[in-house]
Amino acid sequence: MTRIKIQVLGDLKAYGILFLPPSPGRYPLIIAQHGGLGSPELAAGLHPEGSANYNALIKGLLRYPVAVFAPQLLVWHHGQEPKFDQNELDRSLRQLGGSRAAVDLCMLRASLNWLLAHPEIDAARVGMTGLSYGGFYSLYFGALEPRIRVLASSCFVNDRYRINREDMVWTDVAREFLDAEIGGLFCPRPLFIEAGEQDTVFPAESFLGEARKIARIYDRLGKSGNFVFRTHSGGHEYDPDGAAERFLLRHLGVTHATDQCDSLEANDSRVG
């Protein structure tokens, strides 16, 4: 485990934790993105209270021969240290024609550039996953970045007319790219999305409509096998039964996980 800071723009640096297997090698990379009020340390279970609703987001992946990078994005609130107001920053950046999300995406791209130059990372096998805000950034960064080969977005995809948080919508977004269209930009690469049936933040019932729109895009290209969407029985939490983890590992060709990954088709299905 190594804490790193990466130069982005001027005084702006991207921070994150890089986890590498104990033996030297060349490994697939999975970017594991925390959500709101989160941090790399919390998502990795390094806090006394454990990993909260991240479940095995990072801890599960560390059982396999993969590199995991957990970035810190600019999504925390008053009461956390250092003192910071993500919405105030977003409003200031919007006055300049940008957004906090755009800065976060720049930080992710700078981090990816650095990571893919690392001698122990296989640049041809890169995935990304995350919960909530992490699911948001995973989906958007995957749409922008062709080097992301497989993606799992948890507890984010939803009906933006119903869940229209100010930092997740932009001027004219309804005429351009809502969640289904962003998912379509990731097509035909392998994509897994999920929602919690007890989630009170991003309700599962308004997840299903967007998910079916993405399914039609994959179907039209004859790539329906590359798209899985499902609801799990939990709340606003990441992958409680390991389905997203298995999806990522299978599409990254992690051979040590073959037996577990082969069960994906039997145990996980698209919700019709």
Describe what this molecule looks like in 3D.
It is a single chain. With 272 residues, the chain is of the alpha/beta class. The chain has a single domain (2-267), classed as Alpha/Beta hydrolase fold, catalytic domain (Rossmann fold, 3-Layer(aba) Sandwich). 31% of the residues lie in helices and 21% in strands. The chain is built from 9 helices and 8 strands. The chain has helices at residues 40-43, 86-95, 100-116, 133-144, 179-186, 205-220, 243-251, 258-261, 264-267, and strands at 2-9, 12-19, 27-33, 67-72, 121-131, 150-154, 191-196, 227-232. The chain has an 8-stranded mixed sheet, sandwiched between helices. Strand 3, helix 1 (40-43) and strand 4 (67-72) form a beta-alpha-beta unit. Helix 4 (133-144) crosses helix 5 and helix 5 packs parallel to helix 6. The radius of gyration is 18 Å and the shape is globular.
